[in-house]
Amino acid sequence: MYFALLLLSGCGAAHPNDAKLITKFHENKARFENLRAFAIADLANGVSRIEARDIPKFLSGQHRTAYASGFKNLGIENIVSFRDRTNGDTSVRFALSVVGIATSGSMKTIEWTNGKPHPIVGSLDPPYEKKGYVTNTWFNAYRPIGEGWYLHLSSD
Fold first, then answer.
1. In what order do the strands lie in the sheet with 78-83?
2. DSSP classification of residue 153
3. How many angstroms separate the most distant Cα atoms in the chain?
């Protein structure tokens, strides 16, 4: 558990608090919805990850422009889309805070899903160990912020 807490601390770096990210989401909900729709369309064409520093050139100009704007104006670091092969649930994660090193760390995202993520918690702000969702050296938790939308905190 100490290792997970060390990762979350990011050696001095910290994730933005829930209130800041929830405000960002609600003030820009239409933009997040638009990016979600593009990411799902691009997932159907085999694109599951889009990085701020490397937007695939073969995407449509409209998608590339929207992604570039989202990365710049919303502070998104990357967008990851995936479909669960067992039940067909689709998710799109917008990484807004990544803390740690290349092989391990934690991230706080805004996520849309048509599935039922778990565990659902009331807050993703520290102290994590007192909230019961740190397990050994990894954790995963969701906080609802709108219909199908969640704050998501995870570590590896």
1. 49-51, 78-83, 90-101, 104-113, 149-155, 138-146, 134-135
2. E
3. 46
Residues 115/81, Cβ–Cβ less than 8 Å: no
Q: Give, for all 156 residues of the chain, the pLDDT tens digit.
A: 334 444 444 444 689 999 999 999 999 999 999 999 999 999 999 999 999 999 999 999 999 999 999 999 999 999 999 999 999 999 999 999 998 876 678 899 999 999 999 889 999 988 765 555 555 556 789 999 999 999 999 887
What's the 3-state SS for 69-99? HHHHHHCCCEEEEEECCCCCCEEEEEEEEEE
Residues with Cβ within 8 Å of 16's Cβ and at least 6 positions away in sequence, in order, are 96, 97, 108
* Residue 55 per-residue DSSP state: -
Using CA atoms, how far apart are residues 85 and 20, in angstroms rounded to an integer? 33
Amino acid at 73: N
| Tokens coding 120 | 């659902």
